[in-house]
Amino acid sequence: MDGATVVVIGSGGREHALCLALSQSAHVASIHCLPGNAGTSLVATNHQLEDTSTSGVVSYCSSIGASLVVVGPEAPLCDGLADLCADAGLACFGPVAALAHLEGSKLHAKLAMKEAGVPTADYVELNAESDVEAALDRYGSDPWVIKRDVLAGGKGVVVTSDRDEARQFISASIETDGLVLLEAFLPGEEASMLVVMDGVSFVTLPASQDHKRAFDGDLGPNTGGMGAYCPAPVVTSGVYDKVLDRIVKPMHEHLSNKSTPYRGVLFIGLMIDEHNDPYVVEFNVRFGDPECQVTLPLVSSDVFDLLYGAATDTLDPSLVTFDSSSALTVVLASEGYPARPIKGRIIQGLEDALNQQSYRKSWVNVAGVVEGDMGTLISSGGRVVSCTAMAASLEDAQASAYKLLNSLELKGSHFRTDIGFRAISGE
Asked: Can you tell me the mean pLDDT for 112-129?
């Protein structure tokens, strides 16, 4: 399809990454972003709709004759945006609400994994009638893993060896949500795999690894992600074969046999144990952030073809190719992030960085940034930008990403200096 009109839903770094990748396509004539950010405005047209409901979004997409709707965040999918797109005859990259429930409900995901025979941690469902103390005793304290059964914006999981903290989080979650999951702790090393799929086939993208903790050495509080790199060497060819046979293929068969098959990307959060056996930590129904920033640029074939194919059950894995380079991204976060980020500060050097960047070499992915007076760029979120680079080696990609980041100034900001350390040190 040539002359395509694409609408990208969302406003973060992931959506900027999607817009950048789609802007490289020879098939794409125009990109529109709802609502977008200061970065997407450079490659797409941003729109602030008066009616931001799912029906309002679909009405707008229909009015401009959208060839493809690409949904960035999970909430619109859980709210049925893909369902309404289907009713309107719009191709949508993202699953219908019933399948987006894989992210919307941790319990639903566990039951789906059980039905498909996919390895994951043992768990128990707790509600107001449950014996919480007995459940805590059952799983010991090495540590406890507690998961809310709702969309919680990346803040629905507590991992703790403090019994009081575990007890309080369980109690609060039951009070607000009605139930909560207590899981067995899975030791090992984490990785992420993005699988683009439709009702017929699937494509696995190179595995990545993100850094959730706020500070160097994986210390400090959990965040939405302080950086990532791809490919992740922990997913060796042997581990990949296990992931494919034990997780990806069973899940694709399970999801493609639904009345409406899964059309979009399935984010698989993995834990690789000491025996190199993979287990599923979580499913997400959209590209991860910041995993999207380091994975999409490694797709050397046309990204529009990949996404449109999945949205229309015409995905052809043989046409998808990958660059052999490495990619790394590091997040610049506002002062106080993740607890209480301070917003509204000018980001020095960002305009120059955006004007001089070269996609698939060294570039900025904009997240929490808005335009202020006189064209100044102002921080508007916890994760402000991520600086991303591609190179023949991970070490070179790391050096380029940090060189770019060090050209920016944001009062009180912080970032990790060790993104990619496991792969580079060989740990």
From this structure: 96
